[in-house]
Inverse folding.
């Protein structure tokens, strides 16, 4: 049995290494490409105003890396330093590790319990909802899709590359912003990176086509990866394919795409391995 890891390149390599240590046959086939934004001024402005936010939520390790890559020399060294009391919020251990590597103290980071049913915004909210006061502001650092279907796109347009946009309704992290608004808190979005579908050659297309019916297990950690796969291989049947999805919303997207078998798993390594090994 072979596992197809679909995360962006940096995360895919790490996951491939971890899964190989568990004895699995793994190949990386990233379905999302990540690039820095061209307009970095809003990132610099966010650093200069770091103390304005009670917390900064990072949606991924990429958000951490590209946010910290633009830290001006005189900006506060750490979230949670003696001068800056801003908390750092994350939904999972990978993003937490990226913050630690960036120099943020573990005592300043909030994330769901390791025993939480899911590492997502809903679980994070259970941890952080009582630490805020009316009027507090939270910055959500996230990505923007190159095709314009932005994660941070406000109703009616706007919110282009690199922009900070006010709270808007939607899915995923927008749910968290809605909870903040309901408590009299302000949420803002900062685009730190751009996401796009990869450009495939013959080798990637052949690999994906074979993996549609050769018993491979597709590992999905993003619904956008599934959307990109359908665009890259239009007309491909996935009825014989198997997917392991790290969130119920991703599992729903895989079923809608036509995957014949879909297994849900917590995103922790041990749970993912157990889900893969349970595939018949």
């Amino acid at each position: 049995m072979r596992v197809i890891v679909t995360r962006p390149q940096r995360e895919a390599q790490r996951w491939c290494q971890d899964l190989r240590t568990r004895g699995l046959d793994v190949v990386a086939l990233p379905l999302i490409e990540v690039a820095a934004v061209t307009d970095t001024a809003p990132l610099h402005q966010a650093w200069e105003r770091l103390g304005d936010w009670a917390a900064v939520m990072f949606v991924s390790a990429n958000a951490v890396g590209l946010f910290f890559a633009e830290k001006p020399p005189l900006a506060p060294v750490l979230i949670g330093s003696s001068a800056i009391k801003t908390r750092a919020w994350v939904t999972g251990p990978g993003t937490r590790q990226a913050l630690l590597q960036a120099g943020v103290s573990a005592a300043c980071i909030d994330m769901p319990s390791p025993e939480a049913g899911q590492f997502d915004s809903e679980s994070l909210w259970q941890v952080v909802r009582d630490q805020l006061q009316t009027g507090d502001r939270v910055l959500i650092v996230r990505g923007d899709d190159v095709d314009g279907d932005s994660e941070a796109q406000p109703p009616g347009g706007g919110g282009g590359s690199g922009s900070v946009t006010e709270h808007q309704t939607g899915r995923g992290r927008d749910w968290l912003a809605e909870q903040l608004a309901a408590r009299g808190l302000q949420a803002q979005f900062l685009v730190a990176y751009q996401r796009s579908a990869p450009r495939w050659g013959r080798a990637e297309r052949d690999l994906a086509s074979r993996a549609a019916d050769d018993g491979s297990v597709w590992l999905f950690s993003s619904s956008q990866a599934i959307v990109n796969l359908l665009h890259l291989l239009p007309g491909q049947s996935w009825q014989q394919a198997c997917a392991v999805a790290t969130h119920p919303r991703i599992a729903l997207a895989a079923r809608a795409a036509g995957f014949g078998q879909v297994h849900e798993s917590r995103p922790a390594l041990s749970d993912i391995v157990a889900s893969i090994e349970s595939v018949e």
